[in-house]
Specification:
The protein is mainly α. It folds into 2 domains: 36 residues; 192 residues, Penicillin binding protein transpeptidase fold (Orthogonal Bundle), CATH 1.10.3810.10.
Length: 294
């Protein structure tokens, strides 16, 4: 009797060990399969995105633009601290603690989404992962791409400082209304230099990247306002702003610039077109559309 139980136990242990070995072998094979054809990180070290070229009149006022993507690069050290903190509070509150992937947040999000019947209610992508998605991978929603994203995020954290990652992220992400990067977003939504925006305005911008269309203050002002207030509250919860600043930021409704449109520079349209043709002949179309000329 005892011998029979021992035999059954030995079979179970053997099956468990074999299963564990097969699972480990499968995991290793999957890992090396994911490593195949991973994007090189070199382009991040020599970051040269497409920039907006601006035509100025004799008084130095903008009268036209040429662009592939509307973007203006702003060095991280020139951005207000409350703007950087707003993104960290809203998107990745453990940014300075994790090494590219926040596994606790992944488990928390998986549980929340499971309780929601499988519907995606909560994300767990870190700022580093979001940067990978923007700069290195396609936007497809597959488990394979997600795993590759996690591998690349960890590699980036080993190769780049947190400050470098924030610089790339804040200058690359899309804010809706054709604006890429915080510099262009501040200009688009507030007609202001990003260096001068308030806590309330920073909160509105930080609320956009998760869903630029759905949270657009032009299309869905109520959703944008709810998201702005959420970011202000997160800033307070994380200790980035004091109670008085919180109250001021909640009370301040950002004044929006007019929605961007093709008619912004109609008055000087002929002149601007002549400038474009001349520049294309001398410098080439790619330089005009991507070079950030002024």
């Amino acid at each position: 009797m005892a011998r029979g139980r021992f035999r059954v136990l030995r079979v179970l242990v053997t099956l468990f060990v074999v299963g564990a070995l097969l699972a480990a072998a499968g995991g290793i094979a999957l890992y090396f399969a994911l490593l195949r054809d991973l994007p090189d990180l070199a382009p991040l070290e020599d970051y040269r995105p497409a920039l907006t070229s601006v035509v100025l009149d004799r008084d130095g006022q903008p009268v036209g633009e040429f662009y592939e993507h509307r973007r203006r690069i702003t060095p991280l050290e020139e951005l207000p601290n409350h703007l950087i903190q707003a993104f960290i509070a809203a998107e990745d509150d453990t940014f300075y603690e994790h090494a590219g992937v926040d596994y606790v947040s992944i488990l928390r999000a998986a549980w929340a989404n499971l309780r929601a019947g499988g519907e995606t209610r909560q994300g767990a992508s870190t700022i580093t992962q979001q940067m990978v998605k923007q700069l290195l991978l396609t936007p497809e929603r597959t488990y394979r791409r997600k795993l590759r994203e996690m591998i690349l995020a960890r590699r980036i954290e080993q190769r780049f400082s947190k400050e470098q990652i924030l610089f790339l992220y804040l200058n690359e992400i899309y804010f809706g209304a054709g604006a890429y990067g915080v510099g262009e977003a501040a200009r688009t939504y507030f007609a202001k230099d990003v260096r001068t925006i308030s806590v309330s305005e920073a909160a509105l911008l930080a609320g956009l990247p998760k869903a630029p269309g759905r949270n657009s203050p032009y299309r869905n002002p109520e959703r944008a306002e709810a998201r702005r207030r959420y970011v202000v509250e997160r800033l307070a919860e994380e200790g980035y702003i004091d109670p008085e600043t919180r109250e001021v930021a909640l009370a301040e409704i950002p004044e929006l610039a007019a929605p961007p449109g093709e008619s912004d520079f109609d008055v000087a349209a002929y002149f601007v077109e002549e400038v474009r043709r001349t520049l294309v002949e001398e410098l080439g179309n790619e330089t005009v559309l991507r070079g950030g000329l002024t």
